[in-house]
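3.2 Worked example (two chains)
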Amino acid sequence: MKRLWGALGLVLALSVFMPRVSAAQQQDSKVRRNGATLGQNYPNPFNPATHIPFSVGDAPTCPDPDKQHRVSLKIYNAIMGFVATPVLTRGTNGVAGGQPLEKLSIPCGQYEAYWDGKVQATGREAASGVYLYRLEVDGVPLVKKMIVVK
């Protein structure tokens, strides 16, 4: 019971530090900034793996389809310690999946990343708790929360 209350306190504390989004953005559970969107991971909460939808370059309209965007996606624990780098699983414009999303150059489009729920440094499954995922597109960050439940 103490862990449950501790986890609830942690979630409430993190919500103070998370960027605010408008009511319209909360309804579709996406964070949008400078033509990039970061969707809510699914399933959430999850065990053992999750998918993270995102888009770059004002997709699906893509006003500049030839422009390459520099994209990174990282998973952090509640105290902002690095946990893992998800891999790209699918996207538009023939971009190959299976690549780690670290300083990856991709064109405008809608994409999906996959995290197997493992800590990159050890290969062990991540502990239950709240994690943050941070998408950076051309130097502009977007952040959302996810929950791992064992």
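3.2.1 Second chain
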Amino acid sequence: MRVAVIIPAAGRSSRFGTGEKKPFVSLDGRAVWQRSAELFWTRGDVSKVYVVISPDDRELFEIRYRAAMVFANAQVVDGGAERFESVANALALVPDDVELVAVHDAVRPLCTPAQIDAVFAAAEKHGAAMLAVPLADTLKRVDADHRITETVPRADLWCAQTPQVFRRDWLAEAYAKRGGLTQAITDDAQLVEAIGHPVFVVPGSASNFKITTTDDRELAEAIVKARLAKPAPVLRAFGDEAKW
């Protein structure tokens, strides 16, 4: 199995509340996008990582991250005005002999290797899979005056996460036919579903959240530091055997 990974990082970050875009903010010493990309570019089953940035950010990107990219199995791609255009630009560069394509948000840096293993395996088996978590909160539909009009049953509802992983030919077909959709495109699974292919869910975790606000970044940094501070197992000798 060979997997190409697309990391969209060309968004405007309009909800972040600072002058710097979310993917480029430092997370315990490394940019958020880099921590996300590093989850993949060291894997033996990943053929290449495509980091998609706004053309307006290319000069900044090359100055800041030239050293990080020298030894990385990655390629920088110019993005489009919308997320789906950015993914399409990278998808056009993926060789035909790559079996699977994963799309992972640049601002989800806390996914774990075990979760990636699981969603890659599910996509290899079924053709399309994604991480998601069951909805835990009660949903309310609200009108323009902020008055509740409906309580939405949460049974069978899941919150989508990434990576979302697809057969390359399915995703290419879905993007080729995306003009037939009338509703807003919010993730890649939506496109694949629209052409009739089932997408399977792999349980993710609450820690695999998207950094949207400065509070999210502070929480993510605390998690990174906690993971790095986790003590390594100590080798102890018991009789003639060495045990952990």
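3.3 Remarks
The chain is about 30% helix and 25% strand.
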